[in-house]
Structures are given as structure tokens and as C-alpha cells.
Design a protein that fits this description.
Chain lengths: ~300, ~300
């Protein structure tokens, strides 16, 4: 079954202690769409400017991503620039140029509206809600976010959270949203806001799921080389929903394994700048690392 | 098979954001010995002053810990006082009174020398080495440490590490010792220093094993209530070696599961001040939580 993904489609300029890469293909929707496309056809919603390189359009197409919902507007593509510290855990935003993203209103082509699996990747919660408004009875809706929206659009975010099946955020965001340090307590508070499933991302420490069938500790693949973590969280949710869309039966039956696929694709994402590693990835490599993770947690 | 444990036997005064508890039974050897005793008989090596409360001696005995190697000297028992910050991740040492520990030389009773399983719990590496010198061909020796010894006794520590089968330290200590942020790289450097097994403790994110059979990601039990993490690392290694001593065959076959037992007993340790929760623990509760952890990581 196909997956609908909305989020940012951007150019990322990324500095790490070892290298600097200007204007790579980036944005939450780009990372999520490429990750999901390893499993299932993807319908992308986003906006780019008329400066958006043709090779990036070609890259989307190479991954068979449906671009009917990608608007191309006169103006500049959203441009983000960030720099990572030595330990790669912390990063600073150097620059944010919204460009055509500043006036983006997502419109769903008719062919998108019946998608059963929906990923509201990280963008303003009002835009995520606007996409959801246009959907016809999706089976599973998952929303991601970032600290920015907790800071400047909390009301919109809380309104959105009520409407989704699964809500994804990282540890510090969970703490910020609930004022609870304890992950179990934070998850419980977030359930009260609506979502049946709460997924807390913990970077290289994996991810945590809280749902009707209890908790799941999703491992992270231990990486030999961390090149650039940008987009890892987006890859995680992208692969997660992509895998989910291939599984029959109730969501509960496949969510744990879907998280592991998410974790694995995120690990590959970290091995290259932007999408450079992910776009070279083969499905067999993903399966290989999932099998390795199974061995890594067995006791 | 019995386990020999050397380490500190102390009185701990612990402050957390919620409570303050003076002069609890503490020290690395106390925590480790009680944890190990759930699985196998324990022979303790340590020193206390003549102020050491009789009820703590009774507590050791209740857990059937062999005290032939516990010296009682005129003077004060080692007293440590620490305070945890709100998030319980960081703590500050308020006070360290070495007392009789300042002149401690561990002497092994004859009945201790043939122990097959040895835990050198956290004390000065020179004392750990002195115990090892007196042992007759142990099967498995594991050493724990703390940042203090990296700072003030690195040469002794490096000499000790060469002689042990397994070396345990936490993430920040692994980074300090090897100057590597990446856990795989840090483990590799530590293997070069001698140990066949390297175990990196990651607190509520579990623990990591590197050994001849590859890596293992040991989960941590997600706690509803973290009361006091003091001694959790000592409980971890204590239960680990205690479980190991009950298993026949090569070390490789049982080490992963031993770590999970360690992780579980450490989780109970955190649920009370000092040893208050651990000393009330039942073996059936340990087994229950091990079974829960199996379910928590299954996908």
C-alpha cells in the first residue's frame, strides 16, 4: 500500500568537525520519502523554489517517489544550515531561509487522498493538520515534530496530536512537552493528549515505544562511523511507515518490527552527508542490518 | 560456585531532590556482594571501622555473605556523602572520609584463594591487584573502576587491566580512558589494553558488551520510580558475576544473560535508597523482570 508523506523539502548546508557540504538535498520529507520508498510507493507533498536542482528531482524519481503533490514555486527553496559539535550530539542552526516554504499551503492531488498510511513529517503543525483535513479515512497516521513547534506553535501541535494514531518526538522534546524526566511518565502524559502510540527517539540509544501492548525498547545499530546525523529521525519515521504499509493486519502486529527497520535506515543515513548514503542503499543491506540487530539484542 | 568480591565497604550519606538518608550501608563491595548472593555464595573482602553498625553485619549475614575476609579495625568506617541533581543523572561528592580504608591492605583467608570467580569491585587498582596476586588460577576475573582512578592512579589501573578477563566502566570513563567518543572505537582500544571482554555501562540506556563473539546490547529495565542510583553499577557487576558462577561451560555462553541479570538487579537497586530495596528483593522478582526484559526487546 502506498504512503503519503508531507514535510519539508529543503537544501541543507551541513558542517561537521570533519567536513562541510553546501546545499545537499534535505528536509524531513526528503529523508522520510527516500527511506519509505525502500518498502512501498511514496506520494510526496512539499514545495520547492525554481532554484531547486534538477538532479534532486531526478533523485526523487529514481526512488519512484510520486511528485504530483510537489509544488514548484517562483522563489528560493527552503535553505537550512547547521553545524555539529565535536561529539556530534549537539548542533547549532547557522541559518534558516524559509523561501517559498514561508507561504506553503499543501494541496492534495485527488490520487493522494485515499492513502491509508500517512506520515506527517516535521513541519509546522498547522500544515500537518491541513494535510490531515484533506485525507479520507487513513488507517494509520503518524506525526513527527521538533522543539521549534513546541516553542512557537504549541497550541497547534496539541490540536494535531489529538488526531494522530502515533506521535514521535525525541527525549528532550518529550521532557519539554510533559515536564517529566522519566520516559514512562512522559509517555503516559502524551497518551493523555490523544495518541495511542508514543514513540520517543533516543538517538544512538535507540527508541522507546509505548502502546496498548506495552513498551518496546528498539535498539540502535552501533555505528563504526557517524558522518552526519542530519535526517536520521526523518529516515526513522519514513522507513517505519514504509514498512508498516507493506504489512497486513492490525498495526500492533508490525509496529515493533517497523521501528527496527526505521532504526536501521536511520543508521545508514548517519553514514553519509545528507542523503548521500541512503540513496545508495540496497534493500538487502537493510535486511542484513535488521538481522544483525536481532543478534545484537539476543540473550 | 562461590564468588570472591573485593571493594569498598562504606557508610553512604545520600541526598536526592526528594530525601536525605545518612549513613546507609554502602560501598561497591556491599552492593556487589548482596547482588551476587541472590545467585551464589559470596566471599567478601573489605575493611570497616569499629563504628560499623552491628545491624549491617547482620544484614551481610542474612544474605549468607562469608565475612572471614572482612577486617574490623579501630577507627572510622569509610564514609561517603553525595548529592544528586534534579535529573538524577549527575551527582556531586560532598564528603569523603577514608577512615580505616586509608590504610587497608586486603588479606585473603586460605578458604578464599581458590575462588573461581573474582569481582574486583571499584576500589584503588593497587588494592584490586593485591587481591589478584593472592588468587590461585581463577576462571573469570572482572574488574570495575571509577573516574577517580583514571585521574589519580592511571598507571596502576593500566597494569591491572592487563590481568583481567573483563573490564567494566561507564561511557564517560571509556571516553576519558581512550579519547574515543564512539563506543565501538573505545571498546577496541580497551581490548588492546588486555581484556577479552569490555563492558561499557550506559545507565538507564543499558550496557554494551564487546567480546570475541561480537557485540551485545544489554537493555535497562525502564523504571517507574528512580529513588537513588547509588550502587546500581556495583549491583550490576555483582549480579553479573553471581549469575556467571552458577553457569557451567565457557564464559561466552552465559555472559549476555549474566549482564541482563546484572541490569535487572541494578534496576531494583535504584528503587530504594542505598541497599534498602535490594536487601528486600526476592529471586522470583528478579526472574520476573528478566522475563519482562525479554519481552521488551522482542520484535
Amino acid at each position: 500500500m502506498s504512503v503519503l508523506i508531507v514535510g519539508s523539502t529543503a537544501l541543507d548546508s551541513i558542517k561537521t568537525p570533519n567536513a562541510e557540504n553546501p546545499k545537499l538535498l534535505g528536509g524531513s520529507a526528503s529523508h522520510a520519502a527516500v527511506a519509505a520508498a525502500f518498502f512501498t510507493p511514496v506520494k510526496l507533498i512539499g514545495v520547492v523554489g525554481d532554484d531547486f536542482p534538477k538532479r534532486y528531482i531526478a533523485l526523487y524519481r529514481k526512488h519512484k517517489i510520486n511528485l504530483e503533490g510537489l509544488q514548484v514555486k517562483a522563489g528560493k527553496t527552503f535553505h537550512w544550515s547547521g553545524e555539529y559539535e565535536v561529539n556530534m550530539d549537539n548542533r547549532q542552526t547557522l541559518l534558516t531561509e524559509l523561501g517559498v516554504f514561508g507561504t506553503f499551503t499543501p494541496h492534495l492531488p485527488e490520487s493522494y487522498k485515499k492513502s491509508r498510511f500517512v506520515l506527517l513529517a516535521n513541519i509546522a503543525p498547522s500544515l500537518q493538520a491541513h494535510v490531515l483535513d484533506q485525507m479520507q479515512r487513513p488507517k494509520f497516521v503518524i506525526a513527527d515534530t521538533m522543539d521549534l513547534w513546541l516553542n512557537i506553535a504549541l497550541k497547534d501541535l496539541l490540536a494535531l496530536i489529538r488526531r494522530v494514531d502515533a506521535f514521535v518526538l525525541n527525549e528532550s522534546e518529550a521532557h519539554q512537552l510533559t515536564d517529566r524526566h522519566n520516559m514512562l511518565h512522559a509517555a503516559r502524559e502524551i497518551h493523555k493528549l490523544g495518541p495511542k502510540y508514543v514513540i520517543i527517539k533516543k538517538g544512538h540509544n535507540g527508541a522507546f515505544l509505548s502502546g496498548p501492548r506495552g513498551f518496546f525498547l528498539c535498539p540502535a545499530y552501533p555505528l563504526e562511523s557517524l558522518v552526519d546525523p542530519t535526517g536520521a529521525g526523518d529516515s526513522f519515521v519514513g522507513a517505519l511507515i514504509g514498512y508498516m504499509a507493506t504489512r497486513p493486519g492490525p498495526v500492533e502486529n508490525s509496529l515493533r518490527r517497523a521501528m527496527v527497520y526505521g532504526s536501521v535506515v536511520a543508521s545508514f543515513c548517519c553514514e553519509g552527508f545528507g542523503l548521500t548514503r541512503t540513496t545508495k542503499l540496497k534493500r538487502s543491506e537493510i535486511e542484513g542490518r535488521v538481522a544483525q540487530l536481532e543478534k545484537l539484542v539476543r540473550f
